[in-house]
Design a protein that fits this description.
Layout: E1 4-12, H1 19-28, E2 33-35, H2 37-41, E3 48-50, H3 63-66, H4 71-87, E4 99-104, H5 109-122, H6 132-135, H7 140-149, E5 155-158, H8 164-177, E6 183-190, H9 198-202, E7 232-240, H10 241-246, E8 253-262, H11 272-285, E9 295-297, H12 304-318, E10 324-326, H13 329-332, H14 339-353, E11 373-374, E12 385-392, E13 396-404
Parallel strand pairs: 4-5, 4-6, 9-10, 9-12, 10-11
Antiparallel strand pairs: 1-7, 1-8, 2-3, 6-7, 8-13, 12-13
Amino acid sequence: METVVITGMGLVSCLGQELGEVAQALREGRSGVVRDPEREALGFHSPLTGFIREFDPSALLSRKERRAMGEPALYGAVAALRALADAGLEREALARPEAGVIIGNDSAAEATRWAVDETRAAGSTRTLGSSAVVESMTSSPSMNLSVLLKTQGACWTMAGACASGAHALGQAMALIATGQQEVVVCGGVQEVNWAGMCAFDGLGAFSTRLSDPIDSPRPFCSERDGLVPSGGGAILVLESLTHARARDARIRGVLRSYAFSSDGNHLTAPHGDGARRCMRQALERARLSPGEIEYLNAHATGTPAGDAVEAAAIREVFGGTTPPTSSTKGMTGHECWMAGASELAYCLLMAEHGFIAPNRNLGTPDPACEGLDLVRTTRDRRPRLMLSNSFGFGGTNACLVLEAVP
């Protein structure tokens, strides 16, 4: 089996778009959450959202390249080009069957809404144009990226709710480990618009703490009242160690294991058994004991039920001594389809810059979350072995174990 390494990262995040900027935001516990006046005008229960500032895809993509890209595809393409630059890989090096693209995504709501509204307004579909069908497909980010990079290997989208990004990384890892691919550009994307979140808002799962947007969400806090949606793009370049060494690449980290499970219990309510099994499998596949994990990036989104269920699962897996634990969602909001990829990147940035990010907005921890080593303030510690949890609707679970390289 090939060792799978990370050689590049690219981010489009509400915390920033340059890796150093994002690392500094994580260290400072800075929030990227704002109040969206458009959502207020539309009657959302919660107008809170993560907000991406100064996103200009034209700086990296030509008009022709952008023609069939909707919002998620644009985030993915920009993040991917940054990841390739970080990895020291030219596009031309990917034009072969051993290079592929796998992106986690589970919606294209804004593009679909536009096509429906345009058809109704015009009384015809003739005004939609040839790119509308591509933009409105969930697989649009991966197909656009494959065409952009000329890859000839894997090309598909992983749709697994809020574990989509983690599943994309995990499947890419499996293909590389078994020798089916040598390099995969992979990660997750999430559109940041009201159309993509109106049905979610209707569930009443979003935080309505509106006095100051940066005070929400509140993972693990006794006063948490729901999540805050967010999004963007997070792309990583995964390679076999053999391929990376052959081109003398800088190795950022090693992906030690990927595990998956499903609850088989409820469409929207979490169940701890699947999470427990997933964490245990990830540790077993990485050949690690629970005590060797030096940081746990929790899925915790700030919902009353979800955080408590995850806390109980963590206690059961790790026993009386849990690793330092935080949810970066207190800063970013819930980046949904991209979260599994972005949070692995956040873990790697923490390791590279020598800190563990805090639980922003923790306040008084929920008694149901007792027994966890919840990080209140930034710790100056360089974690090497890290576990990242991603759990989604439908009971889909994914866990990734990352080893940072000194």
